[in-house]
Amino acid sequence: MAGKPKKFKIEPFKHPLKLDPNYADNTWQLLESAIHEINSHNASGLSFEELYRNAYNMVVNKYGDRLYRGLMETETAHLSKVAGRIEAAQGDGFLRALKAEWENHNKSVQMIRDILMYMDRIYVKHQNKATVHQLGLDLWRDVVVRNRRIRERLLSMLLDMVQRERQGDIVDKGLFRAMTQMLVDLGQPVYCEDFEAPFLERTSEFYRAEAAEYISSCDCPAYLAHAERRLAEEVERVAAYLDASTEAKVIKVVENELVSRQMRALADMENSGVVPMLQQDKYADLGRMYGLFRRVEGGLDLLRTTMGNHLKETGKALVMDPERQKEPVEWVQRLLQEKEKYDLLIARAFGSDKSFVAALNSAFEHFLNLNVRSPEYISLFMDDKLRKGLKGMSEDDIEVVLDKGIMLFRYLQEKDVFEKYYKQHLAKRLLHGRSSSEDAEQLLLTKLKTECGYQFTSKLETMFGDIKLSREKMADFKEYLRQRGTELAMDMSVQVLTSGMWPQTTASTTCNLPRELEQCSTEFAAYYLHANSGRRLTWQTGLGTADIKAVFGGGTRKHEIQCSTYQMAVLMLFNDAEALTYEDIEAATAIPEDDLKRVLQSLACVKGKAVLRKEPMSKDVRPGDRFSVNDAFTSKLYKVKIGMVTAQRENESEKAETREKVEEDRKPQIEAAIVRIMKSRKRLGHNELIGEVTRQLAARFLPQPQVIKKRIESLIDREFLERDSTDRSTYVYLA
Amino acid sequence: MAEKKAVKLISAEGFEFIVDHDAACVSNTIKNMLSSQGNFIENELGEIRFPEISTPVLEVVCKSFYFKLRYANTASKNIPEFKVAPEMALELLMAANYLDM
Question: How far apart are CA B18 and CA B24, in angstroms?
Answer without folding.
Answer: 9
